[in-house]
Amino acid sequence: MASEASLSEAAIEYRLAGPDDALCIAVLAMQVFLDTYTVNGMRPDLARETLEIYAPEAFARRQQDPATTFILAERAGHLIAFAELTLDRVPPHEARPGAAELVRLYVQRYFKRMGLGRELLNRAEALACSQGASNLWLTTWSGNTAARAFYPTQGYRDIGLTSYTIQGSAYENRVFAKALTAGI
């Protein structure tokens, strides 16, 4: 096993996910989801959502969708962040042909504020643009102040309110969108 010093000095590498990545993506997603949504503690709806939506099998199924791509960030072979991009998804507030959705941009808490989110977002934008998308949109929980502050600094505009239902409980989300241009 590599020493902690060599891990912290290792370069961050980016790649597209393969079939063998579903397990690590799922567990990292569970960790980030719980870090974000359980600020007031665990509730049954959040626990069930975690075990159902973030199960390795659920990510493996999403990876089989030809419209969905996962971009991974790794350090010394350890997954530390990922972006999930799905093509041909229209945002809830604006009918925009050719839109893609950034379904998730998850960075493990130990690696926040290192530019990983910005780099993954740039790569997701470039990939969406290369696949013909003219817009990229996403939703973020209204209580996620860090995400709500981050996206406008990257050129995204808040286009409205929506909700995300977790096991019958509605959570207010903000919708952000950005027009993509060739050459991103």
Summarize the structure.
The protein is an alpha+beta fold and 184 residues long.
Can you put this structure into words, describing what you see?
The protein has 184 residues and is of the alpha+beta class. Helices cover 35% and strands 32% of the residues. It has helices at residues 4-9, 22-37, 44-53, 56-64, 116-130, 145-153, and strands spanning 12-16, 68-75, 78-86, 99-107, 135-141, 157-166, 169-179. Strands 1-2-3-4-5-7-6 form a 7-stranded mixed beta sheet, sandwiched between helices. Helix 5 (116-130) links the parallel strand 4 (99-107) and strand 5. The longest helix is centred in the first third of the chain and has 16 residues, at 22-37. The N and C termini lie far apart (38 Å).
CATH architecture: 3-Layer(aba) Sandwich
- The first-level CATH class is given as Alpha Beta
Total number of strands: 7
Number of domains: 1
List keywords for this structure.
Bact_Acetyltransf; 6 helices; acyltransferase; globular; 184 residues; seven-stranded mixed beta sheet; 7 strands; alpha+beta; ribosomal protein; ribonucleoprotein; 32% strand; Aminopeptidase
